[in-house]
User: Fold this.
Amino acid sequence: MEELWPHLYKELVDVRNKLENHYKDMQDMEFTIEHGKLWMLQCRNGKRTAQAAVRMAVEMVEEGLLNKEEAIMRVGADQLDQLLHPMLDPKAKKTVIATGLPASPGAAVGRAVFNAEDAEAWAAKGEKVILIRSETSPEDIGGMHASQGVITARGGMTSHAAVVARGMGTPCVSGSHEIHIDYATKTMTTDKGVVIKEGDWLSLDGAKGQILEGAVPTVKADTNSGNFGKLMKWVDEIRTIEVRANAETPKDAQQALDFGAQGIGLARTEHMFFDAERIPDMRAMILASDEKGRRAALARLLPYQKEDFKSLFKIMNGFPVVIRLLDPPLHEFLPHTDAEMQELANKMGMTLEQVKQRANALHEANPMLGHRGCRLPITYPEICEMQTRAIIEAAMECADAGIKVVPEIEVPLTGSKKELDIVKNIIDTTAEKVFSEKGKKIVYQVGSMIELPRAALKADELAQSAEFFGFGTNDLTQTTLGMSRDDTGAILDEYRARGVYVADPFASIDVEGVGMLVKMACHKARSSNPKIWLGVCGEHGGDPASIDFFQTCGMNYVSCSPFRVPVARLAAAQAAVRHKNDKAEDSNDFCCCKKSA
Ligand code: PEP
Ligand code: MG
Assistant:
């Protein structure tokens, strides 16, 4: 065009510059040339990949077209995920054979396996595998670690598979109702009639919730480009909410730190016992029929716990580390098969029958609302004593080695000040005991999770005994909606289709319901304890729309899976820009939460 019609070309370039300066954004323009005249037909902001969005935002600041606040609004926080994980090659040929929930982003390619042991065995031989399960449980952790990706037929966005995979940065498609698994023949059949046998290659796109036929080529993520670093520096200057990570392994903690996390907002201690070496002692503790038996198993667990905490403190040197007391629905740890029960019986000097009886006695009709959270230390204080000792001793040893550490001990599933006080008393008494044994002291904090509507309603009272609150919005959503976080995939699809909820409330906070409780609890907490530090550590802590809402609650921090940390940093900065002119009283406006547009 430049050669054929140089004057028209110049005119087009002038118009392009004018439009770009006017809209302060890249323009997708349509034009035509008729009888030697240039006609502009229409223009719109151009679509772009995450890489392009970051580059454009940075270059437009450098050209003086945008300021930093405008620039950070140009990159979709959810888009950022694309920069952190490998992606399926956009140019590759793809056949989607089934879809499910986009539970954990990234592309994975591997050979189908149908149980965790096979995943580990195949991976040990150098095979890349995709683990396919109806749903996952703690026993599958080793297999999930060994897999490139995870697919489940059941479960929602906060099911075990989804939460654990996100934490590991492993791509996952959960709750795919279009697949049917037959463990006996080790096959998966899709609604479209595609049959995947053990060893067949398949791929998944965890950001789109797609399962694909064959080994689709992937492209590596570009996280270290100069532009990405520049943008994230501006993001950190602008945001007012701290971003921490949910992490309990050194690998995840280090990954979180590398992604810019400012501490750990939730270390789920029960995840520290998934390891094959430790789970037998964990089970022995759970199955013990008396305090003596529990103490014996706990004594074996103490050194593991201490080492776990020391490595978190070392990595997070100077940053806060929130350690949550054991919160397992007990059923998650119980052995299911006779072989596993027999192994446990041998270890505990019991008969198979005795183990079965004990497991039956512990059976709960509704374990999520059962013997978990703070109910464990209230009924079995020795568990909390062991964990407190491990935390305090680890912190002291780290402090001796010159590491700055302020452990924050968090009590789960409280609903009243009385419960928190009982557990706090166990923590304080144990800490005092360790201090007098060692002849020195360290500073630690005690806080509460807010995961029950009652806790939110009584937040002013709980805040009198707490130095911080961690809003466990996964459980708070489950208990407020009265809807199981593990079983709602199909129901929620229908609910969203009928407009009951705009988004999956387990992925993006239900502003008008659960959100109202959160905002009210923040307000009540600050009214009785103005210094209290407030954060969110449910999955919503990594969701941009939810972070925007938490900004209006005056939240101090959000905590999310390591791979969500950059997303949360950007979302927090965008929320700070959007709400910078909000009046202070808006954060108390919990009686009439504004409808999101
Ligand atoms: C929560 O309930 O939001 C939470 C963080 O705890 P968990 O997911 O471990 O129950
Ligand atoms: Mg919880």
Observations:
- DSSP finds 23 helices and 23 strands in the chain.
- The chain has three domains: 6-82, 86-219, 239-269+304-327+373-589.
- The domain at 6-82 is CATH 1.10.189 (Pyruvate Phosphate di-kinase; domain 2).
